[in-house]
Write a structure and sequence with these properties.
Layout (H helix, E strand, L loop, with lengths): L4 E6 L6 H10 L3 E7 L8 H5 L12 H4 L6 E4 L6 H10 L3 E4 L6 H14 L2 E4 L5 H14 L4 E8 L9 H13 L20 E3 L2 E7 L5 E9 L2 E8 L5 H13 L5 E4 L2 H6 L2
Parallel strand pairs: 1-2, 1-3, 3-4, 4-5, 5-11, 6-8
Antiparallel strand pairs: 6-9, 7-8, 9-10
């Protein structure tokens, strides 16, 4: 019989964190042993979840929560603090699943090196939904045949970081295929250069932040006399992210270092 994984959730009372806690409580191979939430620190998570058998005091910080031995720390907090949280867990030799956005390529390099040095795994995913992972896969396939592309990154008006983690991850994956061709150099734009979006891993990304959106991504490919658009849009529920997050939790301990995305785990199951 496989050992249960002890899991600590950062952002445990948040939009994704709270339903993820419920899923972990239902899983026979996972054990919820820690919760972090500044807003609800000191409260009993069992009371918030309406689970009378759960007596788990929510901690204010990751440091405090990880005084209880954990196998995996999962972060669904905020772009401003996620890097610090990840490094705290890594240096405590705890595997990490990152669901928060805001990390840069340089941040990922630092996290990867720290994870290797401490012998733990880190899985970071811009979006755990199957549809979002498929968008990335299809876009990478298209980039092998189509030479021009740009990305539109959609999110709610309140999202503080741009581009989103999903857009950053897509740009990183596309850069592994090749650079898109550019007819007119971005730096020689006539007018505000910012109107052409941000250049990330050689891909132009245009971030839209408006009410009515949750999160979405569109990659547009262009060739002579033809266009291809691949688009993902999230609904108002965190439900699509939960299965992917659980896959990451169960697989993060397989090797040391950083893995960006869960597609290697997801497609192995099919």
């Amino acid at each position: 019989m496989n050992k249960q994984l002890n899991v600590c959730i950062g952002g445990a009372t948040g939009w994704t964190g709270l339903p993820l806690c419920r899923e972990i409580l239902k899983a026979k191979d996972l054990n919820l042993i820690g919760a972090v939430s500044r807003k609800h620190a000191g409260e009993n998570l069992g009371k918030i979840l309406e689970e009378p058998d759960l007596n788990l005091v929510i901690q204010k910080s990751v440091n405090e929560a990880l005084t209880v031995p954990a196998d995996v720390y999962v972060d669904f907090t905020h772009a401003n603090v996620v890097k610090d949280h990840v490094l705290i867990a890594v240096h405590k030799k705890v595997h990490v699943v990152v669901g928060s956005s805001g990390l840069t390529d340089r941040d990922y390099q630092e996290i990867h090196q720290a994870a290797l040095q401490n012998g733990v795994g880190v899985v970071a995913c811009g979006n755990f939904a199957t549809s979002a992972i498929l968008l990335q896969r299809f876009a990478c396939e298209a980039a092998q045949f189509l030479s021009h592309w740009e990305v539109i990154d959609y999110a709610s008006a309140a999202k503080p970081d741009a581009p989103s983690g999903m857009a950053r991850q897509l740009a990183f994956r596309l850069s592994e295929i090749r650079k898109p061709e550019v007819e007119h150099p971005i730096s020689k734009t006539v007018g505000p250069v910012e109107s052409r979006g941000a250049t990330l891993n050689d891909t132009q990304i245009h971030s839209i932040r408006l009410p009515g959106f949750v999160i979405g991504l569109e990659v547009l490919f262009g060739e002579t006399d033809e266009r291809l658009s691949i688009r993902y849009d999230a609904g108002a529920s965190p439900a699509p992210y939960l299965a992917g997050a659980l896959i990451a939790i169960r697989n993060v301990g397989g090797s040391a270092g950083l893995i960006r995305g869960i597609d290697s785990f997801l497609f192995q199951q099919k």
